[in-house]
Predict the structure.
Amino acid sequence: MNTPSSEPGLQHWRWQRGSALVLTPFGLWFIFQMLLLPDFEYQTVISWLATMFNSFAMTVLLIALLVHSLLGLQVVIEDYIANPLQRTLIRITRFIGIAILAASITSIFTI
């Protein structure tokens, strides 16, 4: 049954699960890659991130992480913050998240 009131909740649920599905392999990839690095010196990490695949995978990981975290924060705000502040806090949270993502992706692709 597709009622108008259940549609936003269903979309939210699908995006949350979809982002979790993307986070799982890319998160495991990231952990595995960090364990393989000989050290965490600046030059080592920069040279690791400079490869095409690693920069692409890191970008996908960051986007999935942003989507997943923003959806989770939205649920917390909707559940625990008084109604007049909800929409404003959700917008502020999204703005900050997108700004951080833009700075992160810019940093990755300027290497």
Summary: Helices lie at 7-36, 42-49, 52-80, 83-109. The longest helix spans residues 7-36.
